[in-house]
Amino acid sequence: MEDRRIDRRSFMKLSGLLGLGVASAGLIPITAEAVKFNKKMHKVSKTRLAMGTFVSMTLIHSSRDEAEEMMGLAFEEMDRLSALMNRYDERTAVGELNREGHLNDIPAEVAEVVSRALYYYRRSQGSFDITVKPIIDLFKEKTVEDEKALPTEEELRKALEFVDSNNIELQGQAITFKKHGMGITLDGIAKGYIVDKASGLLAAHNIKNHLINAGGDIRTMGARADKKPWTVAIQDPSKRRNYPDIVHMNTGAIATSGNYEIYFDREKMFHHIVDPRTGISPKMSTSVSVIAPTTMDADALATGVFVMNPVKGTEFINSLGQCESLVVAEDGTQLKSRDWKSAAK
User: Cα–chain-centroid distance for residue 224?
Assistant: First the structure.
């Protein structure tokens, strides 16, 4: 019998408000499937919890046993990396950094993610900023028990004093906050990085045809079992399966950021994406999808563009090269970057 002790939306809100550690994988049914596609190929699929969301993997390989073994290793790697970057656990590198304000020997993986986050902070002129943790924490503190208790302007102003990635000093594997009270959240970039690493592990073990979908952060490699490109539907902000677009992908990455998953208030005015300069949730877009060379890049860019207005965000993507975007504005208007390629409908 299918276990329905907690639905997807409830789980997403719970994990988003209270941390990844509060939800047990046993609360959500885990699905797995292995199908012999033809005489030479098996399609092995599985969905389980990781990083506070549902993660699905589909592998195409000649050996079902090898595919299942490698999938298990890929999920293990995702769990390992998630634990390194879990800001809710003070024993992790990120948790200790947020508590102490400095760390001299952070894991290489965390240093890599922070370095890339600082790069996109500069490229986006501050629209993507991992130091928004004080703002996120303020909203959680105010609304986790009472959805009507939003922060005051004065409380937001005080929290914003600690938001500025210019005050992060990163030298090798040593990192320091220049202001006491700062903190980082890697939620807008780490998931993409972890998906990339899982994909890289599969490719290194000769699983060269696969798709990983971690709650909208998607990495594809190779092709489907029928040798056609992978088909990716862009999430419908209204959740009515009226997908804004569909794209075909071989080897690539796409990520979507939207205002439709986690809200802090009953009126759905404040959500998990905030403008680092104002502390307020942007309202000009409902979703932003970005195609980029890596899922980490797509993840960070989707968040950064969401903070910008749709026109400026689209122009920003056009200036980068190797990246494309689809922005769904608040009124439903779609803005596509110069070379965005829709699949034939």
Answer: 24
What are the DSSP calls for 136-179, one per residue?
Answer: HHHHHHHHSS-TT-PPPHHHHHHHHTT--GGGEEEETTEEEESS
Instruction: Answer yes or no: is 183 within a domain.
Output: no
192 and 67 in one domain? yes
Share the mean pLDDT of the chain: 84
Residue 81 domain flag: no
pTM for the model: 0.86
CA angle 254/259/263 to nearest 5° reads: 135
Q: For 133-145, b where at least 16 C-beta lie within 10 A, e where not — what string?
A: bbbbebbbebbee
Which of 28-50 are b and which e, b meaning 16 or more Cβ less than 10 Å from the residue's Cβ?
Answer: beeeeeeeeeeeebbbbbbbbbb
**Bridge partners for 249 per DSSP:** 230
Q: What is the pLDDT of residues 190-216, one digit of tens each?
A: 999 999 999 999 999 999 999 999 988
Q: What is the pLDDT of residues 259-290, one digit of tens each?
A: 655 544 444 444 468 899 998 888 899 899 99
CB 25 within 8 A of CB 17: no
Total domains in the chain come to 3
